[in-house]
């Protein structure tokens, strides 16, 4: 009896080890077999729209402290990430810059870890936010000359964009984008850019 | 303790269990959990400006910092422990930096990579109370004196023992730039020996960064015998500075210190050229990069263009020096959508700060004390002439002095190229003043 029990235990253990090894060997990621995931911008939305406004620090607020503040423009991007590999892939972060009409407004970044199963598509949402204050500063220090060359001032540009982006008529571009993927120690960084609509 | 029992059989004896099942289970546990057991992750935080008033230089720095941490992990992390680097954009808003600091503290980071002077100085009492190593892109001299001290005017200053950076500080940069112009450019002036050289400053008055070195450079100008003219307030967002240039024309300076970032520095140089001011510019490091000649155009590039010297903590992106190959490699690998031609010296600057923290963490970990105080006392403050490459000076920190470097390389743009004017070592040239007078401001 004792012999039977011992044999059963050893057999079960042996099978477990064999199965585990096979599972590992079946889809061992390598630099050579790691196919690039396919990224597409599925949709873009403005989750909340509060109109266009700006208060300078000289304006007395109804409550709270005065300061240079402006209306927010939250932006949410939904990406489809398809994993063509026969093993799961880990997305370890994404970054991209949002631009309207060639003007960079914000650089988004996260280091979230999200698994994408073998042969499946996972949706990854990235939400960021600008305000008329942050956009003003960004425009002035990185796009001042370009605006001037186009005969525009930042206020005109922002008023147009706030209406156009929330109404989905102004194209929103994500560029300088990069997803970082990992599979068992192998890293792949995938650049991307897209425009919506 | 559980025993496996088959119906109708005698309970298994403990001896058999111990002989076979326990070793089997032990192997399973070892195989299954060994990776998790060794893969300890150390968290480091970042507070960056990619959208605010200094995003013209901050975005490239933020990208470079992230790339540097990827490199560190690939190169073994902290003695085998992986580093998880998490950064946020705070848009150069001090209240936002404070909230991000609180968030990072809750995330149990062991150190933080910071950005601007205003927020770093505002956070300094907190990080020192929390014993949180804070490695900033602000090189304000106010952050270099670890122990409480009293100024000549009797004003008390709190020590900044947990603030660090790898570079020469802004005051050292300013003194070095003025010295280089005085040594190399002033003797070539037609009025040399006939009158005092004339000096003025352009900077955004309310900005802690822009104004950080003003007291020091005026002290230096007085020491070297300059006549000092009226300061001009130039916003970080300025693209039109004609009124400031017209005001400067009345004083007719020979050399102007500009304490802003690249965009507004280029605007001032453009207007100075267009209005024939005739003065040379010496520029703090955040206003002197690959973008400056692009933005200033003919004002720098023309044969009769403005003479522009600047402080450089590291070589420009991709220029030959040790470790620069890794900087370029990781920029290409982790931000393949941004061409090398758009990268700036802000990337190697970020690596400079990242590399000193990495070394400090490795030393602290080796000493078995990867905590804030451990990183500081068993890490940073054990570094003596630590070489980081990238064209930066070797780095030394002591428990009483966090001025990492004593010297500054001052090049200029000339004939479309960047050329060295002078390497100014303040400690070597003015050892007494360096030791007892010029510390902390």
Structure description:
The complex is a heterodimer of chains A (197) and B (441). The longest helix of chain A is centred in the first third of the chain and has 25 residues, at 2-26. Chain A starts with a helix and ends with a strand. Chain A has helices at 2-26, 132-149, 154-166; strands at 38-45, 54-55, 69-70, 72-82, 89-100, 103-110, 114-116, 121-131, 172-183, 186-196. In chain A, 28% of the residues lie in helices and 41% in strands. The mean pLDDT of chain A is 91. The relative contact order of chain A is 0.19. In chain A, strand 9 (172-183) and strand 10 (186-196) form a beta hairpin. In chain A, the strands form three sheets. In chain A, strands 5, 6, 7, 9 and 10 form a five-stranded antiparallel sheet that branches. A three-stranded antiparallel sheet of chain A has the order 1-4-8. Chain A is built from three helices and ten strands, in the order H-E-E-E-E-E-E-E-E-H-H-E-E. Chain A has one domain (34-196): Immunoglobulin-like, CATH 2.60.40.10. The radius of gyration of chain A is 25 Å and the shape is elongated. Chain B is α/β, with parallel strands linked by helices and 441 residues long. Chain B folds into two domains: 41-168 and 317-405, 3-Layer(aba) Sandwich (Rossmann fold); 170-312 and 408-437, Response regulator (Rossmann fold), CATH 3.40.50.2300. Helix content of chain B is 42%, strand content 15%. In chain B, strand 14 (407-414) and strand 15 (417-425) form a beta hairpin. In chain B, helix 2 (55-74) packs across helix 12 (324-334), helix 2 (55-74) packs across helix 13 and helix 5 runs parallel beside helix 7 (214-224). Chain B starts with 13 loop residues before the first helix and ends with a helix. The A-B interface holds A 1-2, 5-6, 9-10, 13, 16, 20, 95, 97, 105-107, 109, 111, 130, 134, 137-138, 140-142, 144-145, 148, 175-178, 180, 189, 191-193 and B 4, 6, 9-10, 12-13, 16, 20-21, 24, 27-28, 31, 50-56, 59, 62-63, 66, 84-87, 89, 91-92, 236-237, 239, 261, 263-264, 267, 295, 333-338.
């Amino acid at each position: 009896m004792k012999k039977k029990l011992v044999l059963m235990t050893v057999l079960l253990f042996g099978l477990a080890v064999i199965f585990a090894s096979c599972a590992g060997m079946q889809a061992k990621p390598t630099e050579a077999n790691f196919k690039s995931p396919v990224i597409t911008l599925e949709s873009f939305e403005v989750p909340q729209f509060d109109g266009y406004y700006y208060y300078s620090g000289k304006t007395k607020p109804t409550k709270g402290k005065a300061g240079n503040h402006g209306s927010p423009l939250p932006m949410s991007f939904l990406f489809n990430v398809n994993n063509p590999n026969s093993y799961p892939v880990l997305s370890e972060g994404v970054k991209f810059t949002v631009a309207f009409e060639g003007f960079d407004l914000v650089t988004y970044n996260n280091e979230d870890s999200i698994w994408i199963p073998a042969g499946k598509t996972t949706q990854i949402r990235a939400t960021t936010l600008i305000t008329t204050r942050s956009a003003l500063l960004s425009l002035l220090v990185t796009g001042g000359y370009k605006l001037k060359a186009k005969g525009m001032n930042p206020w005109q540009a922002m008023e147009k964009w706030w209406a156009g982006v929330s109404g989905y008529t102004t194209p929103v571009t994500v560029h300088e984008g990069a997803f970082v993927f990992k599979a068992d120690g192998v890293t792949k960084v995938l650049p991307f850019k897209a425009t919506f609509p | 303790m559980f025993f496996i029992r088959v119906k109708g059989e005698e309970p298994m004896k403990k001896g058999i269990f111990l002989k076979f099942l326990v070793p089997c289970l032990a192997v399973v546990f070892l195989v299954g959990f060994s990776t998790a057991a060794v893969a300890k992750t150390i968290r480091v935080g970042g507070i960056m400006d990619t959208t605010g008033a200094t995003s013209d230089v901050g975005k490239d720095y933020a990208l470079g910092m992230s790339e540097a941490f990827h490199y560190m992990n690939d190169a073994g992390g902290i003695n085998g422990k992986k580093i998880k680097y998490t950064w946020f954009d705070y848009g150069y808003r001090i209240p936002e930096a404070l909230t991000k600091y609180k968030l990072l503290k809750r995330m149990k980071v062991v150190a933080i990579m910071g950005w601007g002077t205003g927020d770093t100085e505002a956070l300094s009492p907190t990080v020192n109370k929390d014993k949180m190593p804070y490695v900033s892109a602000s090189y304000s001299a106010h952050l270099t004196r670890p122990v409480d001290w009293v100024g000549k005017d009797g004003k008390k200053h709190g020590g900044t023992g947990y603030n660090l950076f790898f570079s020469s500080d802004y005051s050292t940069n300013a003194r070095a730039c003025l010295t280089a112009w005085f040594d190399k450019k002033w003797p070539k002036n037609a009025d040399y020996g006939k009158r005092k050289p004339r000096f003025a400053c352009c900077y955004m008055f309310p900005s802690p960064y822009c104004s950080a070195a003003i007291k020091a450079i005026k002290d230096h100008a007085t020491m070297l015998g300059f006549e000092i003219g009226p300061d001009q307030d130039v916003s970080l967002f300025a693209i039109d500075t004609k009124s400031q240039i017209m005001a400067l024309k009345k004083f007719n300076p020979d050399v102007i210190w500009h304490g802003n970032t690249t965009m507004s520095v280029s605007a001032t140089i453009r207007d100075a050229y267009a209005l024939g001011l005739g003065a040379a510019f010496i520029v703090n490091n955040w206003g002197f990069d690959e973008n400056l000649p692009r933005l200033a155009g003919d004002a720098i590039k023309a044969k009769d263009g403005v003479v522009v010297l600047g402080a450089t903590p590291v070589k420009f992106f991709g220029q030959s020096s040790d470790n620069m190959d890794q900087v370029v490699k990781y920029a290409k690998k982790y931000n393949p959508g941004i061409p090398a031609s758009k990268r700036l010296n802000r990337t190697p600057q970020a690596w400079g700060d990242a590399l000193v923290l990495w070394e400090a963490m490795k030393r602290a970990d080796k000493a078995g004390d990867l905590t804030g105080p451990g990183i500081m006392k068993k890490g940073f403050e054990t570094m003596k002439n630590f070489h980081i490459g990238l064209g930066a000076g070797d780095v030394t920190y002591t428990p009483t002095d966090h001025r990492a470097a004593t010297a500054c390389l001052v090049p200029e743009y000339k004939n479309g190229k960047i050329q060295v004017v002078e390497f100014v070592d303040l400690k070597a040239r003015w050892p007494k003043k360096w030791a007892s007078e010029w510390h902390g401001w």
